[in-house]
TrEMBL record:
InterPro entries referenced in this protein's UniProt entry, alphabetically: 3-OH-isobutyrate_DH-rel_CS (IPR002204), 6-PGluconate_DH-like_C_sf (IPR008927), 6PGD_dom2 (IPR013328), 6PGDH_NADP-bd (IPR006115), HIBADH-like_NADP-bd (IPR029154), HIBADH-related (IPR015815), NAD(P)-bd_dom_sf (IPR036291)
Record-linked PROSITE patterns: 3_HYDROXYISOBUT_DH
The family this protein is said to belong to: Belongs to the HIBADH-related family.
Signal peptide per UniProt: 1-20
Domain (3-hydroxyisobutyrate dehydrogenase-like NAD-binding): residue spans on this chain: 169-285
Protein species of origin: Teichococcus rhizosphaerae
Domain spans labelled 6-phosphogluconate dehydrogenase NADP-binding: 7-166
Name of the protein described by the UniProt record: 2-hydroxy-3-oxopropionate reductase
The entry's keywords: NAD, Oxidoreductase, Signal
Active site annotation, chain numbering: 175
Length: 299
């Protein structure tokens, strides 16, 4: 499965459009579909073929990528009228880059294999819009190992790393772990910055000091800077992080994990969205913590 093999992509939001562009740039023959054709204009200008349905994208494709918002959307794209399952060939590989619940992901993989003889890999990603644009995403993959290995060139076109974690659904569990770490760390970082501000410290100087020690993290580097700069245009929307934290809570419950940090982080995302900031970058959590601490916005 190497260029110029035929691949397809369904779901051309901020992340999906960038991943599809990288597949085209890598030399794959690309077919695309999205609910709104306007989002495919740049890809079509670069040589991608528009398809009228997910089924049409899948016909003749060695691999089909998906990137849609939530579990019901994945099910509809795969098995709804005009879905991928109507056009996929036996032996083809579908890679779902969406972040959804693990149990349905495993169920979708079993159904696609039973009904069409095609493999579904769940591969949620980390790295955000910048990683999607630059082709440096981290792919967390569950599903058939042979299918994973066959799709190595596809993963290489969209990401810096792809790790096979186990059977179908395993990638989604790892993504839930990723999101709970990010959100719980954001809560700690923004509480720390609020503490510094109330004590009279310059928050950017404080951030730089903390980056020099063991508190250093990607959240302190990137999310805290976005908050302090007031650069809260998404990015990764708070309402999507709330969805991911709901998935993380569900995963913890399903596996019997004692997870108080996850519970608190999930509640803070609920509060952030309920405060009217759901369309802002998830780093707007810093604004909410500051507000609850009696502080004005940092920027």
């Amino acid at each position: 499965m190497a260029p110029p093999a035929s691949v397809a992509f369904v779901g051309l939001g901020v992340m999906g459009a960038a991943m599809a562009a990288n597949l085209r740039r890598a030399g794959f023959a690309l077919a695309v579909h999205n609910r709104s054709r306007a989002k495919a204009a740049t890809l079509e200008a670069d040589g991608a073929r528009w398809a009228e349905s997910p089924a049409e994208t899948a016909r003749g494709a060695a691999c089909v990528g998906l990137c849609v918002p939530d579990t019901p959307d994945v099910e509809a794209v795969l098995f709804g009228p005009g879905g991928v399952a109507e056009g996929i060939s036996p032996g083809a590989v579908v890679i779902d880059f969406s972040s959804i619940a693990a149990a349905p992901a495993a169920g979708f993989a079993a159904r696609l294999l039973a009904e069409r003889g095609a493999h579904l890999l769940d591969s949620p990603v980390s790295g955000g819009p910048a990683g999607a644009r630059d082709g440096t995403l981290t792919c967390m993959v569950g599903g058939d190992r042979a299918a994973f290995e066959a799709a190595a060139a596809v993963f290489g076109a969209v990401g810096r790393s792809a790790t096979h974690l186990g059977p179908a659904g395993a990638g989604q569990v790892c993504k839930s772990a990723n999101q709970l770490i990010i959100t719980a760390t954001m809560q700690a970082v923004f509480e720390a910055l609020a503490l510094g501000r109330k004590a009279g410290l310059d928050p950017e100087a404080m951030r730089q000091a903390l980056l020099g020690g063991s508190a250093r993290s990607a959240v302190l580097e990137a999310h805290a800077k976005r908050y302090l700069d007031g650069a809260l245009k998404p990015g990764f929307r708070a309402e999507l992080m709330r969805k991911d934290m709901r998935l993380a809570i569900g995963a913890a419950r399903d596996h019997g994990v004692f997870a108080p940090a996850t519970a608190l982080a999930a509640q803070m995302m609920e509060a952030l969205v309920n405060s009217g900031r759901g369309g802002m970058d998830s780093a707007a959590l810093g604004e909410l913590v500051a507000e609850l601490s009696g502080l004005p916005p940092a920027a």
